[in-house]
User: Which sequence fits this backbone?
């Protein structure tokens, strides 16, 4: 039973399109995250939600919009995709406090 | 701003050849330092959390240690299945709930 699952695993799309990535966790965690991992494997936080409330919003283009319908789900919608958006996007969750994060398997987004 | 630097970038070992990975950090009040393992095509998998200088944690062939400026991940008698990218991350007082990651060390263990 997957703890943090995100769909799709692969996403190939053309520049200018709009796409969404979905994430669900069944760990009962209050906090969820979106991370971006570039080609050099550098992992950078984009957003964090706690109990459906946005608590971390890094310097990310406003074409990226997260949405948390409930504390078990955190989706990422991306408008007007650009070549530079190509990366692997990871969803993660954790308990409140200084605790480890549990990551999904990633979504490899390729913009052509 | 919190910063994490990992070295070396890549490490190639023979099976059984012990070594260490380094994670140097700058943070305003360390709340926790994390080690993760990432296999190709997968998400990072949690290994250890260290909270204060002097703390050590062990799991099978891995041992993590922490000082006020850096952490080491010691790998004793590694096996090919230990090959992966090892990521270090910190959380500091100034950025509660936000983990800052290093670039990782890619370890290859040859049989």
Assistant:
């Amino acid at each position: 039973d997957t703890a943090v699952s995100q769909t799709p695993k692969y996403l190939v799309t053309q520049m200018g399109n709009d796409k969404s990535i979905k994430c669900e966790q069944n760990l009962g965690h209050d906090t969820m995250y979106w991370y971006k991992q570039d080609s050099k494997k550098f992992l950078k936080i984009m957003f964090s939600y706690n109990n459906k409330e946005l608590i971390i919003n890094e310097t990310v283009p406003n074409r990226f919009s997260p949405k948390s319908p409930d504390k078990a789900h955190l989706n990422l919608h991306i408008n007007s995709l650009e070549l530079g958006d190509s990366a692997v996007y990871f969803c993660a969750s954790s308990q409140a406090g200084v605790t480890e994060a549990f990551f999904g398997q990633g979504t490899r987004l390729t913009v052509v | 701003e919190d910063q994490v630097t990992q070295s070396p970038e890549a490490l190639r070992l023979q099976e059984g050849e012990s070594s260490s990975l380094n994670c140097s950090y700058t943070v305003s009040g360390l709340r926790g330092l994390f080690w993760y393992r990432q296999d190709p095509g997968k998400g990072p998998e949690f290994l250890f959390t260290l909270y204060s200088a002097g703390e050590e944690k062990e799991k099978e062939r891995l041992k993590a240690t922490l000082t006020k400026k850096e952490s080491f991940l010691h790998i004793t008698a590694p096996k090919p299945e230990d090959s992966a990218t090892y990521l270090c991350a910190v959380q500091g007082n100034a950025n509660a709930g936000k983990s800052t990651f290093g670039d990782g060390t890619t370890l290859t263990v040859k049989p």
Summary: The two ends of chain A are 34 Å apart (CA to CA). DSSP finds no helices and eleven strands in chain A. Chain A has a mean pLDDT of 93. Chain A touches chain B through 23 residues (CB under 8 Å).
